[in-house]
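User: I'm putting together notes for a lab meeting next week and I want to include a structural view of one of the chains we've been expressing. I don't have a solved structure, so I'd like a prediction I can at least talk through. The sequence is below, exactly as it appears in our construct file.
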Amino acid sequence: MEELADRLRHSKVSVAPMMDWTDRHCRYFLRQVTATAGLYTEMVTAAALCHGEPERLLRFDPAEKPVALQLGGSDPGLMAEAAKMGEAFGYDEININVGCPSDRVLSGQFGACLMSRPGVVAERVAAMKAACDLPVTVKTRIGIDEQDSYAFLRAFVETVAAAGCATFIVHARIAVPGWFEPERKPVGAATEIRSRLPAEKRLPGPGSGPERRHYLGRCRARTPAPRRRHHDRAPGVP
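Assistant: Thanks for the context. Below is the predicted structure for the 238-residue chain, given as structure tokens.
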């Protein structure tokens, strides 16, 4: 399992989690196309898993592996329980959604609004890591509302990394809560952020060893490649 998790975390290309698109049928198809791309589930709320039908929501074909389970939620206890379920079902990574700006997600106090509350995200990371042995990662944006400076992103990453998150997937757009078409940063600005991340020094983190070292340089930034078509979402999906 560790080998599969490493393949997922270090894959150079990932298919972003997309509601109503990256279900188990889509992921099975995509795995026939590539054996190396990172695959993510649609976002699943922790409450739906703990109070609903986990078998229906979590089952997948082993051929999809390695695959990450993306979770959303506001309760650390439910998030920890959901992470434990994901591990039991055979997922290779647990990913926390800190990027969705939709009204529905905002009303549940998770998604992109959590960028302004890094301590809350750190609390959830710590609870989930205590509940399972899988890597717990975070998908986030470069900023929220008017808070879109590099210093803001760095402070967020430092706080969450200190709780044990070693990998951040950075969607290089800001998020505007309640507006499902987030503002796009100019390609130049996104490229600057991506170029600065690997240059950072190691961040302080608990313990030692390769899985305990927290680097901003291990962030994976999704940005449009110049002179190349790039799609991290399906047509018609914001």
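A couple of points you could mention at the meeting. The chain has nine helices and ten strands. The CA atoms of residues 64 and 170 lie 23 Å apart.

User: Perfect, that's what I needed.
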